[in-house]
Structures are given as C-alpha cells and as structure tokens.
Design a protein that fits this description.
The structure holds two protein chains of two kinds. Chain A is an alpha/beta fold. Chain A folds into three domains: 182 residues, FAD/NAD(P)-binding domain (3-Layer(bba) Sandwich), CATH 3.50.50; 74 residues, Alpha-Beta Plaits; 160 residues, FAD/NAD(P)-binding domain (3-Layer(bba) Sandwich), CATH 3.50.50.60. Chain A has nine helices and 23 strands. In chain A, the strands form seven sheets. In chain A, strands 1, 2, 5, 6, 7, 12 and 23 form a seven-stranded mixed β-sheet that branches. A five-stranded parallel β-sheet of chain A has the order 14-21-15-16-17. Chain A has a three-stranded antiparallel β-sheet with strand order 18-19-20, with no helix packed on it. In chain A, 53% of the residues are buried. By secondary structure, chain B is an alpha/beta fold. In chain B, the strands form twelve sheets. A five-stranded parallel β-sheet of chain B has the order 8-7-6-16-29, with helices on one face. A five-stranded parallel β-sheet of chain B has the order 18-27-21-22-23. Chain B has a four-stranded parallel β-sheet with strand order 2-1-3-4, sandwiched between helices. The longest helix of chain B is centred in the first third of the chain and has 20 residues. Classes of the chains: A alpha/beta, B alpha/beta. At the A-B interface, strand 4, helix 2, helix 7 and helix 9 of A face helix 2, helix 3, helix 6, helix 7 and helix 12 of B.
C-alpha cells in the first residue's frame, strides 16, 4: 500500500492528449498539484501524430512539443504513462478516491537513456501501431522520436524473452521481473480528457477497407504526410507506387444511420482539405478529388482555406460514395451519385482515403460507479448544464475537456480545456476538507 | 565577449534538413570565432533533446547558445528556458530562424538555402557574442480585471474571476445587460430560453461582492500595460433613479411619453417610447431615457418622481492588471435590395423573425397578413462571393433550423422552405437538421455564384433558385415571409479595439496570438479576448472561450508582482539634450521629460516601454540604446551578413 500522504493531489487529469496537457498546465500554473494519467506509453495523443494543422498549416509536432515539454517539467505536475484508471469513487465529502494501475514497462524508466541499443538488439519485428502498421518496430522499442517520456518499453506479448536487449542495455535498466502496480490516490477534482476514437471503417464492408490494399484511412494519410513519415514519400501501400489520382470519401462513419451514427464529426472536411493541399505539394502531378455531402468549413479562416483548395485545383464532387471495388491492378472503382449531374457515376482512382469520423471513447464509463457517469445518445459524456457550465459532467467535481463531450477541432479543444480547468480550479478552491 | 558559444542546428524532422544541408551549416559554424560546440539535432524542441542540450551546455561549460530552427514565435521561449535550466542567463541565448526564413521559402534551391542558413546562423553568433546577462523587471500589479461587455461571455468570465477572489469591473455599453442572448426564446438543444440563461448569469453577477457592474459604460481611454492598466469609463446617465421600486409610476411615465421610435430590442419590428425598458424582469430593473429620442417635453416627470433629467455624464477610472474583451458581434445588415431587403415588405432578418415569433400569439401574421409559407435564405452576409465577408458565420444554419422547428410548437400550419448554400449543422447539431427533414421542411441548395433570388411579381413574393439537389432545376416558392439568415460581422463601433490596439485578422474580428493553441490571448500583454469578438461562435463555444480567457487574465493578476521583459530602451543622460523627438515617436507614451542636475533629459518608464525601438532612429545625439539590440550587436550582425564567406 503506497503512502497516501504522497498520493494525494488537487486534480486528477485523465488523458494526456492535447486536452489533458492543456488542462494540467492551466491547473498547475495556479499552484495546484496535478496527476496526469495516460494509458499509452507516451503523452501527446492524436495531435502529436498529425502532419500539419488546418488552416495555419503549422507542423503539428512542432506546436505540440512546447506544450509537452512544459507539462513534462512542470513542478506541480506528476505524469504517469502506461497507466490505467480503474475506478474513481466520489466520497461523501468534497473529494474522490481513485484506483490506478501502472502497467509494467519492463524497463527502469529512471535509468533508461533512450539510446535505442535495445531496439537494435531485439530480433522481434511487429507492425508499428504509431505508424498505423505501415512499418515495423521491435518488441523492445521507443514509441517514436518525440515521445514523452522518450524511454524504451518491452512489448511483452510479442517478446521472445531472448534476453538480447538485457545484454545490449548499457545502463542495465531492462527488468523482466517488473509487475503491474496499483495505487490508490485521493484528489479534490477530476478532469476527463480521454478524447475520441476514430471510426473503424471495417464496419462499412462496401468500402473494401482491409481487403482492397489501396484504401486507407485519413489517419494513415496523416502519417504519410508527417515530417516523421515512414517512407519519406506518399506511396500507396499495395505496391509502393506513387499515387497520381487520389480520392477522399468524406463522412465515412459520420452522418450515416447505416452505422448508427447520425452526427457530423466536425473535423473531417477540414483535415481532408488540408491533406489534399499537402498532397498537391508532395505530388504536384496528382489529381485529388474530394467526394462530399456538404463541405463544413465553418471555423475561423476555414472557408478561406476551402476556397484556396478550390483555387489550387482540388476537385470537389458533391455525392456520397456508395461502393468501392478493387481492380486487378490495385486501382479502385468508386461508385457514387453525382448530385450535380443527377445520376449514378463510376470513377477510377489509384488511392482512396476514407475520412473517418470521430466516435465517442467510452472508457470513462467503466471508471465511475454505474449510473453516476451519464452519456448522451451518441455515447459522448453528458454535459449536465450545457450552456451555463458546458464542462460539467453528470458528476459534481468531474469536468470534461476536449472531445470527451463531442467532436471538436484543436482550437475548440483548447477552449474547452480552458473552461474545464477553470471550473476545476474553482471547485478545488471551494473544497472545505483538507486532504 | 562570449568565447564558449554552443550552436545547435535543428533538422525539424525534415522540415529544414530536406532543403538545407544542416551538416554543412554545422561544419562552417564550428570554425566561427567563439563557437565551442556545433551540433545538429533532429527535433531540438522535443523534450528528450532539450534535456540533452541542457546536459551538453553544462558539460562543456558554455557561456552562450544559438539554436537554429523555426520561427522565434514558436520556440524562442522554449530555448531561452533550456539555457536557463543549464544555468545561463536567458539573454545569452539568440534564436536563428532557418525554417520560415530559409527552408520553406527556398525549397527550390538547396544550395542557396544552405548558404543563407549559414549567414543567418553566423549573424546570430555575432549577436550572441556581445550578449549580456540581464534580469527581468519586476512590477507591482493591480489584482483586478476589467471585463468589457456583459453578454453571456462577459458575465461568465466576470463570475469565474470573481469566484477566484479577483476584483472585477464589468462594463456594459448598453443600459441593460445580457447582450444578444437576452433576445432569444428557447435555445437549441435545451428547454431553456435565452432570457432564463441570462437571468441565471446576472443573478450570479449581482450576488457576487467582487463584481462592480457599470451599465451605459463606454471605455474612452486606457494607459499603462499588463499589470497596470488605467482605464477611463464614461458612464451615460439613464435619467431614471437606479433603484426604482415605483413600478406603477414608471409604467405611467412610459404611457404618457409622446415619442415613438423603432424598438431595437425587437430589431425595429415594433415601436418603443423615448423612456423604455426591454422586458420587465431584466437587469437593471429600471427604465432608461434615450436622450437622442427625448423631446424634453417633461410629461414623464409629471407622473413619476423617479425621473431625474438633471443626471450628468460621469467618468470613472479603474485600475486593473488585465482587460478581458467580450464585446461580441454585430448582425450583418443587408444592403437595400439585397434579397429584397427593404424593397419588398415581407423580407425580414432572422433576428426580426425570432422576435416576431416571440411576441406573436394565436396566428402568426406579418403586416396583418397570415403567414403560411416561410422561406429562409441562408448565408446572407457570409461566404460572400462578391463582398467583404468571405467567412462562414458558423452559428446560423443551426440557429435557423432551431427557430423553424420551434416555431411549429407555437404556430400550426407553417411550411418551411430552406434556401441553403449547403447545410453546416456541424457536430451533434446534425440531429436538428435530420429532424427538420423528417418533419417535411424543404431544403434547396444554390451554387455560390448563382444565388437565390427574391422577386415581387404582381404583389406576390417569389423566391427562385437553380437547385443543385434537383439537378439545377429552376424552382420557385411563393413566400408569405422571407427570412434572411444574416451572419455575424465584427462590431462597427470599435473604439475599444483601437484604444487597446488589438490587432484584427483578415475577417476583421480580433486576432488571437495563435489560432490553434492560444485562441484567447492577444499580442497586447494583459489583454484577452472572449466570445464572438474573436470570431463567430455559438453559446457553448462562447462560454468555453470566456472561461479560457478568464484563466489567462487571472494569470496576470493572481500575484501582486509580475515580471516583464527587460528589453527596453535606455537613455544615456550624458548624450541626451532633451529635444522631444523620442517622446513624440513613442507609441506607448513611455517617455517623459525630467530634470537631471541642471539639464532636461528624457526618462523611459520601463514598465510601459515595449522595446519597439521607434525612439532610436529619431534621436539626434544617438543617446538611446535598446537593450539586447544595441548598436554594437546589430552592427556586428550586419557586418556578417554583408560580408561573403
């Protein structure tokens, strides 16, 4: 049993994406102690994986890293990665008890220098989840170059226990005896920033994702375009050919009752237009076609960005894709209703990108006692008082940052995190009990 | 003179190294005078690499550092902090921009880009060689915030700051608080009306002792800077006693007033008197006399002794550490004849339609005629092909759908025809669009360059469209009422922005520091922006932005001391012959005349000086130096740039 004295914080922030990081910094800047818990091996969430951001075309990694490094060395923030929140129980008084599990990394983090010699020594190669399977990684690995913390970890499920990493490690920090550790912590307030899940396109078999090799998701395209891209070029996965006729299928999994998701994901139009613009730079000879129901470029500078894309020669076609079939040479036959012509049309592309939507991440449901954590009809967190305190969840003292409460882009996530952290600070300062 | 300079050249993960030969830059710089360490790094900003740099600076006992990477706007502070953590003074750091100034603009010329990068880094080394250790200036701060605008964003910000224990001055230009939302009936997605939401907010505002509320208050001037703003507010009199419990006689006073003018609260579709209030329960619960309308006939005074025509305009000064601007937006006013506005009598705006629905009972009528067919024309004043406003106003699609859906609750037999440019009911708001479609609302979509037309044919109002959704068929609807869905535009009356010098974006809304990550801060330290003054927003987005702005404003006032950048101008009193040129050139009123011994000299107020350098070139005796940009430092840089390798 760890010492409770040392395991109490003013706020628990669940999720180390941009929403959690922004919230943690805001709260910690006010002299309050924050525990930031991330289930992945690194903080940074989805934003750190993106290529550039719309409509400023800033390099996403470059604008995320200052935030990451600020939170990482903040004296008031304790970060635990590879750690799951098991339960959060609201106590009678003004505080919460939380059970968290730090999963074994099989590496002594305090001694790891990130030298990557274990990676070189490891003989096991598996698909790299951070590059969406486009390249391989070792079983002993560092998630990616700008991961935080930038330390190794052993993927024990795939490890052959050969011991090569142990021998290679110059600081003897590989430790196969490590076990998962559970802690009980006490906090005065909770910020939930668990983000969203990408829509799984296997749910729409008509789009042939998984069977047709050259149908990829928009997140895979982000990795193709990122500065830390795996191939240093945009190559289609089927045969490594540089694509020259690329299609975007908007509303994949959004506004689609056939998959049970009636709502719009708010970000896909814009990230697709951004990717299309980046592709025009990366592949100047390529044609890019965006198939859409409505283009929703509603934010600051977005409509201008859309107009700019049209000016660059990106082809916008109003029509929802019905079916995608793979041809013998790996190209794709795309069938859709062209609204402008008022008829069914077929077209050919050599790469199809599915602009997958933002779905609720239901992780928080398992953290709280049944019936206290409420969701809306789309499984996002319920906002108890939508207009007056948008960040308040169904539980007093638990606040919602970012896409926990619904799809939103980065600026809206920052605003929502600002609101959640302001409410959390106020709640903590009002806490009567000393813990 | 620094002799152990460290130079770090960043690949930026390919952003720089794809176009600039970073190894060549490193090798050339290694030979520069005073350079002790010259290295490349993949991502200088990554936390692990920052730690390596700190260790490297310490291990080599470096005395100054240059990082060549992206724009200083992104990472100057990052690497200044690295330098500090390594035990150096942060002003012994100089930032060289070889991404925005080199690799990106010169991606077509790698050799030239590499040469330019070398020159830029060498000039930075020339500057850092002369760098001095300096300490930040510490100033006393006013632990109070001025919030401008008492709409929902301003009120929410004021409440959250006050609950943190901050003294808040909340200033509203109108005589009544609540802004736009006070006008609206049931809000989208809830059963709450705008009036109820506003009432909840002002109940909190009034109950909080830390909030001082001014209505009829306009900012007339502001001096000082972050930590210490002195703001003058002009308070317009309401000519009615503030505490007015004599409701009956006020009612009589309104009755006897002979003046009738269009009522702004109902957007001109009804009339009000020169003495008026918007609705009985609003705050302050007192009437007001608009002196522009009043004929001073004195009728109201005869029936009500709370009326006081002798009230005078007052000015108050508030001292605050931060100013939070939440001044909202104007609704776009269509031009005469734009979609029939003001030319055809049954063409009104969405705001007018919402008020018409709110004040009508029984049958919905316009100009005495029963309304059945309502045509909504979207994107009026937004997404203009010809015109100023290129942007989308974001809230209007959903606002229109909500209004149309809710109108059926009150009035039966309305038929709704939506003439859109493509629906933008983003996020969860999509369900309202879906609901409207299910209820039989008819949606059309026009081409951007072929807008919907409104015509008067034989006394009938006809709306015509070449409809995308039916393969460009020309369709017509005979409408009893045409509702123009007008977008949000920046405030036309914008003295506040001018006084505080808040920059504006392409869309003329106030500009944030960084669109993505710093949406509520401005380049004017201590001034934050909340709600729709930064760009169109709905209610939830405005409230979130208000709370975000309040947390940033709070950071300026949470302690009684603030550090400010010591990059300021400095006067050499021996050389100064006070001539007034610098005082005139200073845009921040930071320079004044003082006596030094027997002569007059200029004195720079270091808490007000921004280090802009405007005073330097006008000084005839070269008595002014800018700290960290002294003549020696700048000349050294120019020498490097002017000389070939």
């Amino acid at each position: 049993m760890p010492n409770i004295e040392k395991k109490s914080f003013d706020a628990l922030v669940v999720g180390g994406g941009i929403a959690g990081v922004e919230s943690a910094i805001n709260i910690a800047n006010n002299g309050l102690k924050v525990l930031l818990v991330e289930k992945d091996l690194t903080i940074g969430g989805k934003m750190i994986m993106l290529s550039k951001v719309f409509p400023t075309l800033d390099c996403s990694a470059c604008i995320t890293t200052p935030k990451i490094s600020e939170v990482d060395r903040h004296p008031n923030v304790t970060i635990m990665t590879n750690t799951e929140v098991l339960h959060i129980d609201k106590q009678d008084k003004h505080y919460f008890k939380a059970q968290i599990k730090e999963k074994a990394r099989y590496v002594d983090v305090s001694n790891c220098t990130g030298c990557q010699l274990c990676e070189d020594a490891c003989p096991v190669v598996v698909p790299d989840q951070y590059q969406y399977g486009m390249v391989g990684r070792k079983a002993a690995y560092i998630p990616f170059n700008i991961a935080s913390p930038r330390v190794a970890s052993i993927d024990i499920e795939n490890c052959s226990l050969c011991g090569a990493c142990e021998k290679a490690c110059p600081t003897q920090c590989i430790d196969f005896t490590q076990e998962d550790k559970e802690y009980e912590i006490v906090v005065k307030s909770v910020v939930i920033a668990t983000g969203f899940n990408l829509f799984d396109p296997l749910k729409i078999p008509r789009y042939s994702y998984g069977s047709a090799k050259n149908v990829i998701t928009s997140m895979e395209m982000e990795r193709h375009l990122a500065p830390t891209r795996p191939y240093n070029h945009v190559l289609r996965p089927g045969d490594g050919k540089m694509p020259d006729n690329i299609a975007y299928v908007l509303c994949t999994g959004s506004r689609d009752m056939t998959v049970g998701n009636p709502i719009c994901s708010q970000i896909c139009c814009m990230y697709s237009i951004k990717q299309a613009q980046l592709l025009m730079g990366a592949l100047p000879m390529a044609d890019v076609t965006i198939y859409y129901i409505n283009i929703r470029s509603f934010g600051k500078g977005f409509e201008e960005f859309y107009e700019q894309a049209k000016g660059m020669g990106i082809n916008f076609v109003k029509g929802k894709i019905g079916q995608i079939d793979e041809l013998e040479n790996g190209d794709l036959k795309v069938r859709y209703e062209d609204i402008n012509q008022g008829k069914l049309v077929e077209s050919k592309h050599d790469l199809v990108v599915l602009s997958v939507g933002a779905m609720a991440n239901e992780d928080p449901k398992t953290m709280f006692k049944a019936d206290t954590w409420k969701q809306d009809e789309f499984a996002f967190a319920q906002q108890k008082d939508l207009f007056y305190t948008p960040s308040l969840s169904s539980i007093d003292g638990v606040f919602l940052a970012g896409t926990t409460s619904g799809p939103m882009d980065i600026p809206d996530t920052i605003l929502s995190s600002g609101a959640a952290s302001m409410e959390a600070i106020r709640y903590i300062k009002q806490a009567k009990v000393e813990i | 003179m620094k002799q152990k300079i460290g130079v770090y050249i960043c690949h930026c993960g390919g952003n720089i190294s794809d176009y600039v030969d970073v190894d060549k830059v490193k090798d050339v710089l290694a030979k520069e005078d005073g350079v002790y360490v010259s290295k490349t790094t993949i991502f200088a900003c990554a936390d692990s690499n920052q730690k390596e740099m700190v260790a490297d600076i310490k291990a080599n006992e470096l005395d100054a550092v240059v990082v060549a990477s992206c724009s200083p706007k992104l990472h100057q502070i990052t690497f200044q902090a690295v330098t500090e953590r390594a035990g150096l003074n942060k002003y012994n750091y100089v930032h060289a921009n070889i991404r925005e100034q080199v690799s990106w603009p010169h991606s077509d010329n790698k050799i030239g880009a590499t040469e330019k990068a070398i020159q830029i880094v060498r000039s930075s080394v020339a500057k850092v060689r002369l760098s001095q250790a300096i300490e930040p200036i510490e100033i006393d701060t006013q632990q109070a915030v001025l919030v401008l605008g008492a709409g929902i964003a301003g009120m929410k910000a004021a409440i959250s700051l006050a609950k943190m224990g901050t003294q808040v001055y909340l200033a509203e230009r109108e005589h009544f608080i609540g802004g736009r939302i006070a006008h609206w009936d049931v809000l989208c997605g809830t059963e709450e009306t705008g009036k109820e939401l506003v009432t909840r907010l002002y109940t909190d505002v009034i109950a909080n002792k830390n909030i001082t509320l001014y209505t009829g208050a306009e900012m007339v001037s502001s001096g000082g800077s972050k930590g210490n703003f002195n703001v003058q507010l002009k308070l317009k009199p309401r000519y009615v006693a503030d505490v007015c419990d004599d409701k009956e006689n006020i009612k009589k006073a309104i009755e006897v007033c002979p003046v009738e003018v269009p009522d702004e609260f109902n957007f001109g579709i009804t009339k009000r008197k020169a003495i008026y209030h918007n609705f009985p329960s609003e705050y302050p619960q007192a009437a007001v006399i608009n002196m522009d309308d009043c004929t001073r006939c004195g009728e109201c005074e005869k029936v009500c002794d709370k009326i006081d025509l002798s009230q005078k305009e007052e000015t108050v000064e508030v001292k605050v550490g931060s100013v939070l601007v939440a001044t909202g937006f104007d609704s776009y006013t269509p031009g005469e004849g734009e979609f029939g506005y003001q030319a055809i009598d049954n063409v009104i705006t969405l705001s007018q339609y919402k008020r018409l629905l709110a004040i009508s009972n029984g049958e919905l009528k316009w100009n005495g005629k029963k309304i059945e067919n309502v045509a909504y024309i979207y994107c009026v004043g937004s997404r203009q092909v010809e015109g100023e406003n290129k942007y989308c106003s974001r809230y209007c699609c959903t606002a229109t759908i909500n209004t149309a859906l809710r109108s059926n609750d009150k009035f039966k037999n309305l038929n709704h025809f939506h003439f859109t440019r493509g629906m933008r009911t983003y996020g969860k708001q999509e369900v309202f669009y879906h609901e409207a479609s299910k209820q039989g609302h008819v949606f059309f979509q026009s081409y951007g360059d072929d807008p919907t037309k409104v015509e008067n044919k034989n006394g009938k109002t006809i709306v015509k469209i070449n409809d995308i959704l039916t393969n460009r068929k020309e369709l017509e609807v005979e409408a009893d009422l045409v509702v123009l869905v007008t977008g949000m535009v920046p405030r036309a009356h914008n003295t506040i922005g001018d006084i505080l010098k808040i920059p504006k974006g392409r869309d003329k809304f106030y500009n944030e520091i960084h669109m993505k990550l710093r949406p509520v801060e401005t380049v004017i330290d201590g001034v934050t922006i909340a709600g729709a003054c930064q760009g169109p927003k709905n209610i939830v987005e405005s409230i979130n932005s208000a709370l975000s702005a309040s947390i940033k404003s709070y950071s300026f006032v949470s302690s009684d001391k603030l550090s400010v950048e010591p990059i300021v101008a400095k006067i050499d009193e021996n050389l100064c012959q006070y001539c007034d040129a610098c005082t005139t050139a200073c845009p921040f009123d930071a320079i004044s005349k003082v006596k030094s011994g027997s002569k007059d000299v200029a004195l720079i107020n270091h808490t007000v000086c921004k280090g802009c350098g405007m005073c330097l070139p006008v000084c005839p005796t070269n008595a002014i130096q800018l700290i960290t940009f002294s003549d020696d430092e700048v000349e050294n840089m120019i020498n490097v740039l002017a000389n070939e390798l």
